Amino acid sequence: MTLPALFIAHGSPMMALEDNEYTRFLEQLGRELPVPRGIAVFSAHWDDPDQRLTEDAKHGTMHDFYGFPEEMYQITYPAPGSAELAAQIRKRFEAGNLYAKAVTGRGLDHGVWVILRKMYPDANIPVVALSVDSKRSPSEQYSIGAMLSDLRQEGILIIGSGGLVHNLRMVHKSDEPDEWAAAFDEWIAEQLSEWNLHQLFAYDKKAPHASDAVPSYGREHFVPLFYAMGAADRGRKAKRLFQSYQYGSLSLNCWSFE
Question: Is pTM beyond 0.85 here?
Answer without folding.
Answer: yes
